[in-house]
Structure formats: C-alpha cells, structure tokens
Amino acid sequence: MKRFVDDRTAGTSDEVWLVEHEPVFTNGRRAASDEAPIGGIDVVNSDRGGLTTWHGPGQFVAYPLLDTRRLGVGVRELVMRLEQTIIDTLARYRVQAGRRDGAPGVYVDNAKIAALGLRIRNGCSLHGLSINVDNDLAPYRHIDACGLGLAATRLCDHAAVGGVDEVAAVWLALFSREFGLSIQTSNAAVYAQSAPGRSSDFDPFADGVMAESPAY
C-alpha cells in the first residue's frame, strides 16, 4: 500500500483494495506503540489515524487509495464522504446508522459498527475503513476502539446479511457513485477511474440485495 502511494504519479489510476484480514490488532498514531500480542492476537503498529482496532474474518475492509487533489476533496470532506458510503450501505439493509462528534466511524444504537482511519501522503490517501459484518466481537473486549468506552456491534445483529462479499459489492457501488468513479475489477485490485457524473456500470442491486430501487 505504501509503495503504491509512494510510486504513483499524477496519471496513476486510483485503486480500491477490498480485503478480509486474518485476526490482527492495529495501532493508529494516537495509540501506544506496543506490539505485544493482545489476547493471543498479533498487534501491528500503523501510521494511520486513530487508536487501536481489530481486523479479522467476517469483517469487510476497504482501502481507497485516492488522489485527493485530482478529486478536489480535503481531508475532512473525504472522511465525511467515506462515512456516508458506510451509512448508505447499512441503509440498504434497513439499518439506521450515524456519526458521533469527535469520533470518526459509524455507529448503530450507540455501538460502533464501522471504523475509519486514514493518512494523506503527497495528496493521496492510504489506509481506509472497516465494517463489522458477521465477525466475532470478542476481541473488542480487549480494546477501547473509539476511546469512548462504547460497545462494538455488527451488521448481522441488526439485519439478514449474506456475508462479507455481499456487503463489499453493495459498498463498492455506493462508493463509486459517491465519488463519481467508474470501476474496473481485477484479481489484484479494484481500479477507480475518474469519470463525469455519478454513474457506474457495476450494480449489485440488480442481484436483489435490496428490493427497493436505489435513489440518487
């Protein structure tokens, strides 16, 4: 990820990496840089923003590697719009979610369902966001992910969901429309090309994730 950001030029296409990690805790820049295992799970220091969070099976993770100057967005706007893609994704499952002042991420019923931690380097973003889909919540008992003492929750506790791949498809379509990007997929990465308007040829809603038509 860092190599991609360091090596990219003004003409490099943006990429979005969609992954599902093995269990790991990551420390953001606001967390103590202690890599001692927690509850038998490895800990890795990261240069993203935020505190300590957990990643693992059943959790959807996206790394939008975007040229923010080309998109014409600042850091605050980028954070808000990425949070909105999460809120809109959850809305497709009829789950009402929202933000909390001073606490990046997305929350449902006062519990954290999605995390967001970014860094901007040379005008380009790295790191990204995660949504708890059907993962084990036990690791969250070892950390205070948002620094507010709030519980963690997951999408499967609030709605019927078909798994991480399904959520990834819904999020990717909403992300492409939010940022006006056309999406080309490959085994290595998802390539996001700047395009006029808010359209995309990729439409998971046709597969019946939600019965209602998308409204934009």
Describe this entry's structure for a reader.
The chain has 216 residues and is an alpha+beta fold. It has one domain: BirA Bifunctional Protein, domain 2. It is 19% helix and 29% strand. The strands form two sheets. An eight-stranded antiparallel beta sheet has the order 6-7-8-9-5-1-11-10. A three-stranded mixed beta sheet has the order 3-2-4, with no helix packed on it. Strand 7 and strand 8 form a beta hairpin. Helix 3 packs across helix 4. The C terminus is likely disordered.
- Which CATH-level-2 architecture? 2-Layer Sandwich
Which residues sit in consecutive blocks of at least 5 with pLDDT less than 50?
A: 193-216
Number of helices: 4
CATH class term: Alpha Beta
CATH superfamily grouping: Bira Bifunctional Protein, Domain 2
Rg over C-alpha atoms, rounded to the nearest angstrom: 17 Å
Name the assembly state. Answer: single chain
- Helices and strands, in order, run as HEEEEEHHEEEEHEE
Query: Helix coverage percent of residues?
Result: 10-25%
Instruction: Give the count of structural domains.
Output: 1
